[in-house]
Amino acid sequence: MKISLHNQVAVVTGASSGIGSGIAKSIASAGATVIVNHSSERSVDEAKAVLKEITDAGGNGITYQCDVSKEDQVMKMFQDVVSQFGTVDILINNAGVQKDAKFTEMTIDQWNTVIGINLTGQFLCAREAIKEFLRRGIDPSRSVACGKIIHISSVHEIIPWAGHANYASSKGAIKMLMQTLAQEYGADKIRVNSICPGAIQTPINKDAWSTPEALNSLLNLIPYNRIGQPEDIGNLAAFLASDLADYITGASIFVDGGMTTFESFSTGG
Length: 269
Ligand code: NAD
Hints:
The longest helix has 29 residues, at 108-136. The model has no long low-confidence stretch (mean pLDDT 97). This protein has 7 helices and 7 strands, in the order E-H-E-H-E-H-E-H-E-H-E-H-H-E. The chain has helices spanning 18-29, 44-56, 71-85, 108-136, 165-185, 212-219, 230-241, and strands at 9-12, 33-38, 60-65, 90-93, 147-152, 190-197, 252-255. A 7-stranded parallel beta sheet has the order 3-2-1-4-5-6-7, sandwiched between helices. The protein has a single domain (9-257), classed as Rossmann fold (3-Layer(aba) Sandwich). By secondary structure, it is α/β, with parallel strands linked by helices. Bound molecules: nicotinamide-adenine-dinucleotide. Residues 13-14, 16-20, 37-39, 43, 67-69, 94-97, 117, 152, 154, 197, 199-200, 202-205 line the site of nicotinamide-adenine-dinucleotide.
């Protein structure tokens, strides 16, 4: 059994670092041509470094700058990718940010920024991807499905998170966005799923692992007793995007070392 994404084109948002870069590398190694999306001029070099790792390993792709919270930029990204590569087969909706604050001190800007990137960004990219999937139709030389979308959600789609109301709200909403799209486009053979990471070692949560004390306290939440790595998510993304996962749609799959078993209950609660 071999995961193959040969002859397919994948857009990975926020692929210049962390989980997105891990996913971009995994799906490129399975044969997909990868659009390494990044948000701004500041992330150009990081995106180029990810693409170089992909091409050095024999894969294909391009970097593409686009702020996923901006409708005009997202529409242009999909138009440009389709005109350069013919179509899009896979969307990995990964870009996300945290702007943490105690709820009564949370500014409208912190709220809107997180909802704008984490939720509206996933809506905009999914809408453009599905329009392209439907335009192309099923092409069995590419995949038995018409298209695949993978939302990167979080364990916080089910675990409430004090001090992070904007982030937890965005991830809870992704669950309903994902399931609604899976239901609405199932008959068109478009598969839509979410990966819900636990604690993965990336820049977004550096405070939680960069000192031995912080890491120790984090590990108290993880029965499997290690922090996750971007490739833990990339491996599942490659499988979920492939035809091996053809009967999986509308699912949230947790990749969290057991975090959602609620470790604090392990001694009887
Ligand atoms: P990260 O900070 O390394 O990556 C986030 C990426 O999103 C960056 O490449 C950033 O440039 C990009 N981005 C931010 N705003 C953007 C915009 N407007 N347009 C396009 N790209 C934008 O963090 P990460 O941990 O790799 O996070 C990736 C995803 O995984 C996020 O959705 C995050 O919520 C989710 N997640 C992470 C963890 C974890 O423990 N690291 C856990 C659960 C979920």
